[in-house]
Write a structure and sequence with these properties.
Strand 6 and strand 7 (152-154) form a beta hairpin. The chain starts with a strand and ends with a helix. It has helices at 19-25, 79-95, 100-108, 128-136, 169-173, 219-222, and strands spanning 2-6, 9-13, 49-52, 59-62, 73-75, 143-145, 152-154. A 5-stranded mixed beta sheet has the order 2-1-5-3-4, sandwiched between helices. It has a two-stranded antiparallel ribbon with strand order 6-7. It is an alpha+beta fold. The chain has 6 helices and 7 strands. The longest helix is centred in the middle third of the chain and has 17 residues, at 79-95.
Length: 225
């Protein structure tokens, strides 16, 4: 076991635990976006930053990737941490102002303004879809391409992947997805997928009355438009 100080309280966690896991176990709230239970830590969004160390030697780290260490001093909601999280949320809102997930996070953390130009992008490069495709669906149908401002996400060489099963998992985990029944055209306003008016899954099951387990459903993406 490892003993560290978190928000002035001595806590003990198992060796190999991350700071995020330690905070969640002891009930210290830390917001996350790119992190998702069941997927490997990635540390892309930096929303889960915490302050470690003391005095002028303190620094910010992503709690989802930083390992708990013996004697470490951690603050999960210092003034510096709160300011940083608000700035990150403002930047995320500038990238994807249409995201309900980001809007809810901003409201929950008292973000009252958005000072950056809105880009209306459809991806924040959080890596959730890449990891769920590789680690849960065992497909590796999508991945990252390029570096820096040219970094993007898609299939290799932009060619339709032969290993993609159209399971909809990438849509399900995406915090910026606009394909979740967000159409406003009259002919597409009611897709019927959520009500299972037509089978939303590509692979049929031996149980004819089995309901789709995805919530929200992935029917909007599966049905060609």
């Amino acid at each position: 076991m490892i003993t560290l100080t978190m928000n002035g309280t001595a806590v003990r966690v198992e060796k190999g635990s991350t700071l995020l896991e330690a905070a969640q176990f002891y009930g210290f709230p830390i917001p996350t976006l790119c992190h998702m239970e069941g997927l490997s830590p990635y540390g892309a969004c930096r929303l889960c930053v915490v302050e470690i160390g003391d005095g002028t030697r303190s620094r910010l780290v992503s709690s989802c990737t930083y390992p708990a260490q013996e004697g470490l001093i951690v603050r999960t909601a210092s003034a510096r941490v709160v300011r940083t999280r608000k700035m990150i949320l403002e930047l995320l809102l500038g990238s994807c102002p249409q995201s309900k997930t980001i809007q809810d996070l901003a409201a929950a953390h008292d973000v009252r303004q958005q000072r950056f130009r809105q880009e209306y992008e459809d991806c924040i490069l959080c890596g959730r879809c890449v990891r769920v495709c590789e680690e849960q669906m065992m497909a590796k149908a999508i991945g990252f391409r390029g570096r820096g401002e040219n970094r993007s996400l898609g299939t290799p060489f932009d060619i339709k992947s032969d290993v993609c099963r159209l399971c909809g998992a990438c849509i399900y985990v995406c915090p910026a997805c606009q394909l979740r029944c967000s159409y406003t055209e009259p002919e597409e306003a009611i897709c019927g997928g959520c009500a299972n008016l037509s089978p939303p899954c590509i692979q049929t099951n031996k149980f004819d009355d089995l309901m789709c387990y995805l919530n929200p459903c992935a029917a909007c993406e599966i049905v060609p438009r």
